[in-house]
Amino acid sequence: MTPRIQVAVTGADGRIGGILRNGLSDRFVPRWLSRSDADVTNLAALERAFAGADAVVHLAADADAYASWDAVLPANVIGAHHVFEAARRAGVGRVVFASSNHAMGMYMWDDDRFADAQPAEVRTDAPLRPDGLYGVSKAWGEALGRLYAERHGIVVVCLRIGWVTADGRPPSSTEMRREPPAVARRAPGMWLSDRDCLALIEAALVADVRFAIVNGVSDNVGRWFSLEEGRRLLGWEPRDGGS
Amino acid sequence: MTPRIQVAVTGADGRIGGILRNGLSDRFVPRWLSRSDADVTNLAALERAFAGADAVVHLAADADAYASWDAVLPANVIGAHHVFEAARRAGVGRVVFASSNHAMGMYMWDDDRFADAQPAEVRTDAPLRPDGLYGVSKAWGEALGRLYAERHGIVVVCLRIGWVTADGRPPSSTEMRREPPAVARRAPGMWLSDRDCLALIEAALVADVRFAIVNGVSDNVGRWFSLEEGRRLLGWEPRDGGS
Predict the structure, then answer these.
(1) What ipTM is given for this predicted complex?
(2) Of the candidates A69, A67, A144, which has an alpha carbon nearest to the alpha carbon of residue A99?
(3) Which domains does chain B have, with CATH numbers?
(4) Nearest Cα to A177, choosing from A167, A187, A191?
(5) In chain A, which residues have their Cβ closer than 8 Å to the Cβ of B135?
(6) Distance in Å, alpha carbon of B131 to nearest chain A alpha carbon
(7) Cα angle vertex A227, ends A223, A228, to 5°?
């Protein structure tokens, strides 16, 4: 019998935490951590919360794609460092880091000043093009992840999560109207369904890799971000797709 | 007559600041800023110090490639944000950011666990592979730079500075012995001579680009990092090379 995998989940009270709470396979033994259990700005609290875990899924962050510096610095920048460092100190073997498509957000932008930088498809190894401080903070977390993978031997999988909507359905016209006009044409292609999100995180928890960056979007009409890395590195294939 | 370019230089009292003080062309009107003039953790002080400048050369940082988190967070992480943001607020049109080869330091590492990640030559668009928190902080600064270039219209040139030695000569055997053994084979190829460093920064101050990341190493025997981007994007060609 395969031993069950002990997984500590930060940001467990957020939207994606809810997807995991509702659906995580019983192959995993979850430890749901909200801010009151282990604030990500408190390194010692994180180390205690991770003790004995096989893996960490790091979801805690200010999730506003256009969050201010004052919000991004503690929750995302310091938080990402402390999660990786606490994982190292606690002897955790794997970190799944919830990165974001916003690390590459400018590829979504319709802007002919940078037309030479718009590839036919956005692969995860293309140059970083964040669209806000939030996106920069996700790029920061990925670079930290690579460091902890290569220098400290932790398996790190960075998931560039797409658009997980409030109700789990493809983005509505109301949600679309809140996005900047420059991304309107491409944003519907960024949807990530709840079940694709769940399967992606579960795949990241068991894949035989050392370090990976993978796009997390369903196979939508108008999809712009590659699925190739997820298939190749995690064996993950989205089952949904919006139009 | 070409108008002279007003340049604010952070970290002007450091090693590279000294190279600029000794040699900067009179095409530029320098404003030498040390920590006592404008601490990089003080956004308002930076904005005042940058007022009226055409360009900023951001050298201020903890320069220890293996600096601790407590040193890197204020000097490099917060500092880089504040410099870009202060430049935006002050209406500065260009920022030259002293990044580092340590953003890609693991390419230097002799480590067969990651042999598949060792290309024949390290181009600047290869995946980030920092070798410490210092290197991660430089990757952070580059991602911020791309954001400020694309969203705020500032020209940003990131220079992945190689090894500027204490006396300006190729690394001595004593300096080499201080490096981790895993990088001994490749480290001599990272030398950047003083006059190549000066010409590189001057080229970055006038090049017709929107955003660029360029390696700053002399044309050394055993050079491992590409010079192609510097030639193509900045018209910069190193004149020196160590063996």
Answers:
(1) 0.96
(2) A144
(3) 5-234 (3.40.50.720)
(4) A187
(5) 143, 147
(6) 6
(7) 140
Q: What is the pTM of this model?
A: 0.97
Give the per-residue pLDDT at A118: 77
pLDDT digits (tens, 9 = 90+) for B17-72: 999 999 999 999 999 999 999 999 999 999 999 999 999 999 999 999 999 999 99
Residues B168, B218: contact at Cβ < 8 Å?
A: no
SS3 label, residue B154: coil
> Do residue B128 and residue A142 have CB atoms under 8 angstroms apart?
yes
Pick from B113, B130, B147: which is nearest to A136 by CB? B147
Q: What is the pLDDT of residues B110-130, one digit of tens each?
A: 776 666 677 889 999 999 999
Comparing C-alpha atoms, which of B217, B207, B225 is closest to residue B242?
A: B217
Tell me, yes or no, if A107 is annotated catalytic.
no
**Cα–Cα distance between A74 and A137 in angstroms, integer?**
10
- DSSP code of residue A134: H
| CA B203 – CA B223 distance, rounded (Å) | 21
Cα separation of B229 and B233, whole Å? 6
Nearest to B129 among A77, A81, A150 (CB): A150
Kindly tell me if the per-residue pLDDT of A178 is higher than 90.
Answer: no
